[in-house]
Amino acid sequence: MGVVLVEKPREGVINPMYNCQPCGAQYVCIGIKDCIPLVHGGQGCCTFVRLLFAQHYKENFSIASTSLHEDAAVFGGMKKIEEAVKVLVRRHPNLRVIPIITTCSTETIGDDVEGVIRKLKRTFLEKEFPDREVYLIPIHTPSYSGSHVKGYDTAMFSLVAYLAEKSEPNGKVNVFTGWMNPGDIREIKHILAEMGVDYILLMDIEGFDSPIMPDRSGFATGNTTVEDIRDTANSTASIVLCKYEGFKAAEFLEKRFGVPAVVTPTPIGIRNTDMFLKNLRRITGRRIPDSLVEERGRAIDAMVDLAHMFLADKRVAIYGDPDLVIGLAQFCVECEMKPVLLLFGDDASKHYAKDERLVELESKVEYDIEVVMNADFWELERRIKDGLKLDLILGHSKGRYVSIDYGIPMVRVGFPTFDRAGLWRYPVVGYNGAIWLAETIANTIFEDMERRKDREWILNVW
Asked: What is the mean pLDDT of residues 416-428?
């Protein structure tokens, strides 16, 4: 009995559950204030990613494209970068950051992005806008390797490595959130505020939950500034909430500027949130306030109300980003559920065997947990066809047809969730996230009991 890691036994992909590297890079970059990422590739490399963001958030985001055509395969696309940068800088007077994100086509062509950036600085920015600070930052994300997870990690590293600058200590903590939703960011901010911790959030995307104000403004934007990223070199420490989505940047700050990097399990569930708070206490010396202790007690009470009678022994399949999947599996174990199948939509397989969270998970269970690396939805569907019994599926909306076709109830979590309203407003992290997860899972099971007429009378008396 234990955790068994297996590779997808095919080179090809059937019904992918993950997105490409440039998608992850674009998500990082739209979290920066006064920033418009420039995707160097075909129009679709920008358009389809923007569509995903719009489906998920029901908001629009500013992302530009060099819109390469066939002639670039022969002559290169560097002229397109020059044209695009000039248009963006001239059209947007407040623009301060233009990350130039490569794609599979431009990486294959071999465009010298760093070279064209040096040329633009010398021949355009310094001459036409000598008093204006505009950062052109290369981010290399070939679509044919890795996934949006790797693209996110690469983009975060590139931005921090380019902008971080040593000056005076600021007494702050860098918090690398990883790929989270606005509800998660709001919960992280709440925890930091309750503990009185001064922080730099990378990236602060709470503004993606965009209000429509009396002046009719309501454009979704990120809130992390150039100054925030620059100041990361002067912080007391960095804390990384998603190991595979931010650690590379935190490690750079540690090696280059002596800012200690602390990797904490993604704070999903009670124990992981406890560890997050303890790490904050150790880094800052701040005490954990009674208000958070009370929140912890409410979360435990909510889980106790549901675990033994409704959640215990339910067999669960979880898919998506590795950090999210592992955190959700740990939460399921806390609720006495059995996460028997984990599917990672990423190909960083050499890291997973050494992941201490999976090692710990193995020590806590008395049944097999199969972990499929570089997985697609065919791997989930094949196992169900072969007789894998599941009571619940946890994952993003792209797996909805597996749930529908096989009659297995599903809780939407992760990115993208486009077939249910407003899920990005609710946290899955922290003690409040534990409450939402436990009750949402339970309510989904209740609906399935009623649909199947399976002991639904219990709901009258429990």
From this structure: 94
pLDDT over threshold 70, residue 74:
no
Q: How close are the terminal C-alpha atoms of the chain, in Å?
A: 34
Give the C-alpha separation, 388 to 396, whole Å. 20
pLDDT, tens digit, 9 for 90 and up, residues 4-37: 888 888 888 899 999 999 999 999 999 999 999 9
**What are the residues whose beta carbons fall under 8 Å from the beta carbon of 373, sequence distance 6 or more?**
5, 6, 7, 8, 344, 346, 347, 349, 352
What is the model's pLDDT at position 191? 98
Radius of gyration of the chain, Cα coordinates, nearest whole angstrom: 23
* Closest residue by Cα to residue 334 from 398, 271, 281, 422: 271
Give residue for tokens 């797996």: 399
In this prediction the pTM is 0.94
Q: How many CB atoms lie within 10 A of CB 74?
A: 7
A 10 A CB-CB count for 374 gives 19
Residue 356: CB atoms within 10 A of its CB come to: 10
Q: How far apart are CA 388 and CA 315, in angstroms?
A: 9
At 349, the pLDDT band (50, 70, 90 cuts) reads low
Q: Are 286 and 317 in contact (CB under 8 A)?
A: no
pLDDT of residue 348: 65
Q: Cα-Cα-Cα-Cα dihedral of 207, 212, 214, 217, to 10°?
A: 70
Q: What phi, psi does 256 have (nearest 5°)?
A: -85, -40
